[in-house]
Design brief:
Length: 399
């Protein structure tokens, strides 16, 4: 610890320096107003300042204190006053002094100085960490709200169909055990094309926090910009999105990428065409057969977006059953796990998702949506999902 001692008594300053330097602290002393002012303006950095408030009067000491605050706002300051002048310390404390010590005539206070200075530094550091955590929560909340503003709130479904979507961010614990709802990298969108086909998409940016959120915002902007252009199939669209994202450093720097599942569904023919960029395939539940299965293998699809502009993607076509549910999701749902069992063998997984769908066959689409979040969260045994989670459901029942 580096300590500046600004003092008014030459018979005490050497002894104070000795006591404070016992544990190896670097102690710099300044005797009298001019020496203290010179030290303040020297540009040297200190962890804490011990300042006598009489220089030689309390007003003089206060002027030095103010100068010290102006030059070094972040340095903790501990004042020292005579017993009969304790009332004067109030002025200092009200204007930013962090602590004080009373100078008894026998000099016993010197034995306490090291402990007082250390506890003051610790208290100031803890207060700053709390302020930083509060500021972090504010910043993250602002980005999170911006991100959530692009998620559709009102979803229109064609006649005979129901469509639902839900996004849930992850949380972390910070100072004081308070929960911070993180800005995340998940995203879903649902919109109708001019031919009345419906676009269903889910995306997931690598990592967490502001970079992931801004990556998703970038992709959302691109999707919205070019969605009015007619692409022959989903692979062409995803290829174009990938090329443009490769030019965006906010996404690709430090190895960042986005997984995407992009699907176009024709409600008249029940044909769905879809393309995966490193994303889990859709699940289909056939009510007539009583089956739940993935439309493709787990590893189906091309590279995630923003990895290379030369990535190639494939379009898959399926005809949905007359009575069915279609599920699109991000890996936050699949990879839910108990904190005490963090490995690939203890995840909610594809089977957990399929089992929830089977167990809620007779339930409404809204009840299934809630069950997917509840069951995956329950699987974590109280630790909660550690990744953002997005789910899109489409359902058709002819009777």
């Amino acid at each position: 610890m580096r300590i500046l001692v600004g003092w008014d008594n030459d018979s005490e300053i050497d002894l104070i320096s000795m006591y404070l330097g016992v544990d190896g602290s670097d102690v710099v002393t300044a005797l009298g107003p001019e020496a203290i002012k010179a030290q303040i303006t020297s540009g040297e950095r200190f962890d804490v300042v011990l300042l006598a408030i009489n220089m030689p009067t309390a007003d003089d000491g206060y002027d030095i204190f103010q100068q010290l605050r102006m030059e070094s706002l972040d340095i903790p300051i501990v004042g020292a006053c005579q017993p009969q002048e304790v009332f004067r310390i109030v002025r200092f404390m009200a204007n930013g002094m962090n602590g004080y010590v009373i100078r008894d005539g026998a000099g016993d206070y010197m034995f306490m100085l090291q402990t007082i200075l250390e506890s003051t530094v610790d208290a100031v550091r803890a207060a700053r960490e709390q302020q930083l955590a509060a500021k972090l929560r504010e910043e993250v909340d602002s980005v999170r709200k911006l991100q959530e503003s692009v998620i559709p709130r009102h979803i229109e479904a064609p006649s005979g169909y129901q469509i639902r979507g839900r996004y849930e961010p992850s949380q972390i614990r910070v100072v004081g055990g308070q929960a911070v709802t993180m800005a995340g990298g998940d995203y879903y969108d649902i919109f109708t094309l001019p031919d009345n086909s419906i676009v269903l998409l889910v995306g997931d940016a690598s990592g967490h926090g502001m970079k992931a959120a801004m990556s998703i915002m970038t992709m959302h902007t691109l999707v919205r910009m070019i969605r009015s252009q007619r692409y022959a199939d989903t692979a062409h669209f995803v290829t174009e999105i990938n090329k443009q994202l490769c030019e965006q450093t906010i996404v690709s720097e430090e190895g960042g990428f986005i997984t995407l599942l992009y699907a176009i569904f024709n409600p008249e023919t029940r044909v769905i065409q879809w393309t995966s960029a490193g994303h889990p395939p859709p699940f289909i539940q056939d009510f007539s057969k009583g089956t739940v299965e993935a439309l493709g293998d787990k590893d189906v699809g091309g590279l995630p977006l923003a990895v290379t502009e030369f990535a190639e993607y494939e379009t898959y076509h399926n005809v949905l059953p007359e009575d069915c549910r279609l599920l699109l999701f991000t890996d936050g749902l699949e990879e839910a796990f108990p904190e005490a069992k963090k490995d690939a063998h203890h995840q909610f997984g594809f089977e957990g998702i399929m089992n929830t769908m089977r167990c809620n066959t007779e339930k409404s689409i809204d009840e299934l949506l809630q069950a997917l979040f509840d069951d995956s969260n329950a699987f974590t045994e109280g630790s909660g999902r550690h990744d953002d989670t997005s789910v899109v459901l489409l359902e058709r029942r002819s009777h």
